[in-house]
Every structure is written in structure tokens, then in C-alpha cells.
Specification:
The chain is of the alpha+beta class. It is built from one helix and five strands, in the order βββββα. β2 and β3 form a beta hairpin. The radius of gyration is 12 Å and the shape is globular.
């Protein structure tokens, strides 16, 4: 599955503002935010700020890198077909 990523600035309650809109089949399926709190062990990782449809999680995951986030999104969407 091909995902299209669009950079975006995200207003969050923290310093994390670098984000990506994730599209699949021309539909918005997720918003990812890169964690930037230098005090945290998760700095530089990607967080599922919002997921839609099959991507929604009440406890959103944190991903080690962007590749893993995309793999997880694609796998989650594939379960829908």
C-alpha cells in the first residue's frame, strides 16, 4: 500500500510541532507528530497524534522511526481489505 506523507505544523500542548498528515487512497488516515522533548527517552520518535477509521487507537502508539510508523499504518489498513 502506498502512503502519501504531507509535512505540517501541529499545535499540541507541548513543544512537539513537526508533524505529517498521512494519506492512503486520497483519504486522511493519520496525523503523526515527531516528539521533541529533550528530557524524554522518546525524543525523535513518532507519535500517532490522531488516527481515523482502522488507525484509531484509544492508547496511541509511539514509533521508533518513521518507517515503522508507516509499516504499522499500512498493516492496520490492510486488515480492512
Amino acid at each position: 500500500m502506498t502512503l502519501r506523507l504531507q509535512p505540517v505544523r501541529v499545535a499540541t500542548d507541548s513543544e512537539d510541532t513537526d508533524g505529517l498528515l498521512v494519506f492512503a487512497r486520497d483519504k486522511l488516515v493519520a496525523v503523526l507528530v515527531r516528539l521533541s522533548n529533550e528530557q524524554s527517552e522518546d525524543t525523535g520518535k513518532w507519535f500517532l497524534e490522531a488516527g481515523f477509521g482502522r488507525i484509531y487507537r484509544s492508547r496511541p502508539p509511539v514509533f521508533y522511526n518513521l518507517d515503522r510508523a508507516q509499516e504499522w499504518i499500512a498493516t492496520s489498513l490492510a486488515a480492512d481489505t
